[in-house]
Structure formats: C-alpha cells, structure tokens
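Box 4.2: Ligand-aware structure prediction
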Amino acid sequence: LANKKFHPQPTEFAVKDTKIGPDNITIMSGPCAVESEEQLLTIARAVKKEGATILRGGAYKPRTSPYSFQGLEEDGLRYMQTASKETGLATICEVTSAHAVASAFKYVDMLQVGARNMQNFELLKEVGKTGMPVLLKRGLCATIDEWLNAAEYIMSSGSSKVALCERGIRTYETSTRNTLDLSAVCVLKERTHLPVIVDPSHATGVRSFVEPLAKAAIACGADGLMIEVHNDPAHALSDGPQSLDFDLFASVMEGLKPYISLA
Ligand code: PEP
Ligand code: MN
C-alpha cells in the first residue's frame, strides 16, 4: 500500500485545516512534553505566529528512565484540545499504548508513533484502526524496509494517511544524539508516495543544528519539519537542550523562508 509502484502520485492528506503532501512544507512545532495548560497555550500562540500549522506536544512520554517525567496523560490531551480551539492549530500527540490511542482519538487530530514503538505491531494496528492521520517515526535502529513495513501495518489496518518521520538513527557517532539520515528522504521519495517529515530536533539533540539540517531536509525533498520549541528550554521537563526558545524559533523560521517558498 505504501509502494510507489502501485500508487505513483504523491499522497496528500488534510490534518484539520492544514495539508501534508507536495507543494507545501508543513511545520509541526511545540514542546517535547505538555507540562501545563498555561505552558502549552503560550507555546501554541508563539509557534502559530511564526507559521507552524500543527502543534506537537507529548502527553505520554516514552522516557529512557522510569524516574523521568512521564507526561500528563489525558490531562495533557485535554490541554492540546484547548490550545487547538484557541489558536486553530491542528494537533499531534504520541501514543504509546492502545489505551492512549483510545484517549487521543477524542482530543487530537493526528497520532504519532514514536521511534521506540515503530515495531510495536499491536500498537500499529490499533493506530491504523482509527483511520486518523499518523506520523510514523523511524525506529532507532530500523532499516528503511522495516520502516516501510511498519507503515504497511498501519495502512492495512485502516489508515491511508501516513507520513514518515526521519528522526535520526543510532550510529557510532556520539557528538549528536542520533545521526540524521538525510539519504533516507531521497530513498523514500523513490520508493513510496507517502509524505516525508524530518525532525532535526530529536536527530541531533542540539538546538544550533536545527536550522542547517532543516534547510538540508527541504533541499532533499522533505514535505515538512518537526521542531521542538519551549517557552523556557533551560527548565523544560524533557529535551531542553534541543528545544528552541521563541526568539530562536522565529529566527529559524525566517531563515527557512526562502527554502519553504522554493518547495
Ligand atoms: C518525541 O517526538 O517527543 C519523541 C519522543 O520522538 P522520538 O520517538 O523520535 O524519540
Ligand atoms: Mn522530545
């Protein structure tokens, strides 16, 4: 279902009032984790002002340590809905279990499957059954074939609206959190009609690398970007070092303007 051979036209789909697909660079921005209603609203207003059309925010956080902040769960989803009502932004939230899928279905416009769950096949089927738009992140050590097969799980379960998100893979290099595989964008463009999103925030873990890699991603043919933004990165409950503050996000978006208009 994901193979370009049987579906040569690029796929485009709507997420609330915004579109993901060709002729458009979709910007998904927001905090790593929803921390409070106030925090989310402040960030939602700021990212909308700079041109983001989808608000991201984690309510179920798959943290490496069980002692790290795990997310506000259903309360976080409610705040996402409030922020969407106030700003008009579409919303995306990661789901980590069947229970989270059932909750997120009620509150947000797009579901995210995180890198750590890319091959959680039961979760992929649950996500597919909703028929909702889905952002499928690449697994930390997944080949492009394994990633496309994960997309097949979602599509064959009922959702044709899948976007693939390159977020860096694990290599021997330790200077960045992961290694952004931009060649994956080129490979995917040859092999699938599904839209491709690049997440330079999780790929590098370093905020100063977000802008150059975002530009490179668009040059490679990406259909959108996921960029983490926080009102106070130094005190973020997760992923502070890679999060942009509002001024930096504004300057990154300014820098991206010529690239976005070329797309
Ligand atoms: C996230 O988007 O907040 C996240 C946890 O990303 P990934 O699954 O790519 O690590
Ligand atoms: Mn994060």
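In the box above, the bound molecule is phosphoenolpyruvate. The chain has nine helices and ten strands.
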